[in-house]
Design brief:
The chain is an all-alpha fold and 77 residues long. It contains 5 helices and no strands. It has helices spanning 10-27, 30-39, 42-48, 50-55, 58-75. It is globular.
């Protein structure tokens, strides 16, 4: 995953890896987990408001990201 357009600190990157790990567990595929998080607004939210993002744990964000992804998928059917 490319982060060039984002400026994350060490804690943000560590937290992001936890969220990705949780997504990978649920999806079962590392590449797809990266794709799902890239298409979500999570990275932008983490960049713009890290205090808010860090307020919730990785399981919360994995649930939220997957829920949003599923809603988008249903809208394209």
């Amino acid at each position: 995953m490319k982060f060039e357009k984002y400026s994350f600190d060490e804690l943000d990157i560590e937290f992001l890896s936890y969220v990705l790990d949780e997504l990978e567990k649920r999806i079962g595929d590392k590449a797809q987990a990266h794709e799902v998080i890239s298409c979500s607004g999570f990275l932008k939210q983490l960049q713009e408001d890290p205090m808010y993002v860090h307020h919730f744990d990785e399981k919360y964000w994995a649930d939220y990201i997957l829920s949003q992804h599923q809603k988008k998928a249903l809208m394209t059917i």
